[in-house]
Design a protein that fits this description.
Elements (H helix, E strand, L loop, with lengths): L28 H15 L6 E5 L14 E4 L5 H11 L4 E7 H7 L1 H10 L4 E6 L34 H7 L4 E6 L3 H13 L4 E6 L12 H4 L11 H10 L6 E5 L15 H8 L2
Parallel strand pairs: 1-2, 1-3, 3-4, 4-6, 5-6
Antiparallel strand pairs: 5-7
The structure holds thiamine diphosphate and iron/sulfur cluster (SF4).
């Protein structure tokens, strides 16, 4: 694990690149970017010791807007790339970020196994219950009765429950945040990064273009009525029965993180030798 106990020598601006985000005005992802840079400033590791890895989607553009190392990969494979990076370079702080389509649909399999493997990285999902980049198709977290031109009358398919699925798959840290609460979100992200093992932060982040009704989320979110638990069964029961708008840290476990094996630390020359014909 990284030593992140030193006071920060960096301001949030040190983690923001000169690229101007091209998100729609009012998109929740702007404040998630602000919260991420604020969290990194709290942690205080220099940008070159942090890697932000993503897949494809509006939200997945986020690495380019930071000064950290970035990897904007292929759709649904952010966790695979981030996991490989962390195993090969355990000295880096690895943050994987993306959308609900990227992470729960095409990348759903990687999500399950990242929770199970417990490699020490932070996974941030900007969940807007829609595919924003491809113009508004239903995603796994879309409500079954969301009526729109592409699925008239709604999909009538029950929504995926990311927090419960993460717990069932073994995630060690589970939190829900809201983009409209930038300070609270920054604190949660910083706590997630500090937590040993796989830390999952689901951030409700409205897509104002294809789901303008999500502007009302700011009135729906509230602090969880009970304190964080380290009992996954209690956490699942609570999350299954909450209204989906409890924001805060919901579960923090103490399962030891995956540790890199000697084989995974082999040099390139050693690997080449092994594969030589
Ligand atoms: C293999 C592959 N399939 C489909 C796509 C098209 N595609 C690009 S982004 C995206 C969904 C993005 O939705 P989400 O991850 O929720 O992010 P958002 O844009 O809402 O932030 C899809 C289906 C693609 N780029 N690659
Ligand atoms: S389409 Fe939606 S998710 Fe994409 S930038 Fe615009 S508001 Fe954000």
């Amino acid at each position: 694990m990284n030593d992140m106990t030193q006071p920060s020598a960096f301001a949030p601006a040190a983690y923001k690149s000169d690229y101007k985000p091209i998100w729609c005005p009012g998109c929740g992802d702007y404040t998630v970017l602000g919260s991420l840079t604020k969290a990194l400033a709290m942690i205080g590791r220099p940008p070159h010791e942090v890697a932000v890895v993503s897949g494809i989607g509006c939200s997945s553009r986020i690495p380019a807007y930071t000064t950290c190392y970035g990897f904007h990969g292929v759709h649904g494979r952010a966790l695979a790339a981030g996991t490989g990076l962390k195993v090969a370079r355990p000295d880096l702080t690895v943050i994987v970020a993306g959308g609900d389509g990227d992470g729960y649909s095409i990348g759903g399999n990687h999500f399950l196994h990242a929770c199970r493997r417990n490699v020490d990285l932070t996974y941030i999902v900007m969940d807007n219950h829609v595919y924003g980049m491809t113009k508004g198709q239903a995603s796994p977290t879309t409500e079954p009765d969301w009526d729109n031109k592409l699925s008239p009358g709604g999909t009538r398919i029950g929504a995926f429950h990311p927090l419960v699925i993460a717990l069932a798959a073994g995630a060690n840290f589970v939190a829900r945040a809201f983009s409209g609460d930038p300070n609270g979100t920054a604190e949660i992200i910083a706590e997630a990064v500090r937590h040993p093992g796989f830390a999952f932060v689901e951030i409700l982040s409205p897509c104002v273009t294809f789901r303008p009704e999500q502007r009302a989320w700011k009135d729906a979110v509230h602090a969880p009525p009970v304190r964080v638990t380290d009992d996954p069964v209690r956490a699942v029961r609570r999350i299954m029965t909450d209204d989906g708008f409890n924001i805060g840290l919901l579960y923090a476990g103490s399962r030891p993180p995956y540790t890199t094996t000697r084989a995974a630390r082999a040099t390139l020359a050693e690997i080449e030798e092994e594969f030589a014909l």
